[in-house]
Each structure stands twice: as structure tokens, then as C-alpha cells.
Amino acid sequence: MSIATGPRWIIHLPTTLTSLDEVTALAVALRDSLGHLTVVDFGETTLSEEDAQFLRTRVFCDARLDDAGRCRRPDAHDGPCAATIDSGSWKSGCPQSADTPISAKTC
After folding, report:
1. Is residue 107 a contact partner of residue 94, using CB atoms and an 8 Å limit?
2. Backbone φ, ψ for residue 78 (5° rounding)
3. Which of 65, 95, 102 is closest to 82 using CA atoms?
4. 31-57: b (≥16 Cβ within 10 Å) or e
5. For each of the chain's 107 residues, which pLDDT tens digit applies?
């Protein structure tokens, strides 16, 4: 595994979606279809409203797993971290508001 020596770059990808549920579903679909690319760190995915980009909602749990990459469950999930998820785990996770900064989430 190579260690990056320069700064990491972020891709800001605006959408035409208007709800947190829709844009979360898009983030999950992107991770599911592009997750094989080692150059994309989906564990760090955050969402924000267009006019409030300083308030970000984390999508995925970013815990690293032994030899399995990152946890694929939603942020602030119940139970242990896992390398695989069932489709219902997105509904049972902690509901997040786009108005709540990551540092203030408590569930």
C-alpha cells in the first residue's frame, strides 16, 4: 500500500436533488458502484445543502475494520460495525438533519 505524500483532493459534486433522503441514496449508489476504486474514500462522504455547505451530514460510519476496509453501515448506527450491510440498516440508523453539524450529532 502506498502512502500519499501530498495533500488529498476533494470532489464537490452538486446535484439537482432536493431532499436528504434522495441525496443519501445517491451517495450509497455511488459507493456501491464505485466502491472498488481504492482512490475514493467513501468513509469520509458528507452531504450539505447548497447554501449551507459549512453544515455537513456524514453518510457512512468511517470506522476502519481489520483487513475489510471501512464499516459500510450508516453513520451513528446501532450495534457493531460491519463490512456488509442489509438494506434495512439505512432506515434503522440515527436520523440526521442537514442543519446539524457533524460535531454536534449525538445519537
Report:
1. yes
2. -85, 155
3. 65
4. beeeeeeeeeebbebebeeeeeeebbb
5. 556 688 989 999 999 999 999 999 999 999 989 988 989 888 889 999 999 989 999 998 888 888 767 888 899 889 999 887 655 555 433 444 434 444 443 33
Residue 103, C-alpha cell as written in the block: 460535531
**Which set of grid coordinates corresponds to residue 40?**
475514493
C-alpha span between 106 and 14 (Å, rounded): 27
User: From CA 14, how far away is CA 2, in angstroms rounded?
Assistant: 30
Q: In this structure, which amino acid lies at residue 91?
A: K
Contact 71, 60 (CB under 8 A): yes
Which residue type, as a one-letter code, is found at position 11? I
Asked whether 48 and 54 are in contact (CB, 8 A), the reply is: yes
* Three-class DSSP category at 49: strand
